[in-house]
Amino acid sequence: MNRIYHPYQEWECYQNGMYSQEKDNDIDLIEKSRNLLSDKDATMEAMTSVILSWKKSCEHYLTDLSSNRRAWLGQAACCFEHGSSEQATCKAWWQLTDEQRFVANAVADSVINEWEQEHVGGGVCLKLDLV
Hints:
This protein is an all-alpha fold. It has one domain (26-119). The protein is built from 7 helices and no strands. Helix 2 (27-37) crosses helix 5, helix 2 crosses helix 6 and helix 5 (69-82) packs across helix 6. The relative contact order is 0.20.
């Protein structure tokens, strides 16, 4: 897969406040992120919305095979759904159980594979079976 770059000003995640430090300690956003990521169906829906709506962010982040694409997609999903920052989502992540994190990662793998099939003609993401 060829790496695609876009200036940060064009990233939809940036434009929607994913990197806003003002939101990093917002208890309400942390709880909303935890609730989203602990719900398999809601996580799937939010991540799918990201890949359908945020073209440039997805190209920039999902073509970077050296990054943690699962984490980015989870953070983007929380930002897309309720305006959470990446740091607030990270704080929510550590409140999940191991099983919840496993399921969220499996959902991310599935959505990333879907994106790759649509955009680069083949999945390169490691895939976990959904439980």
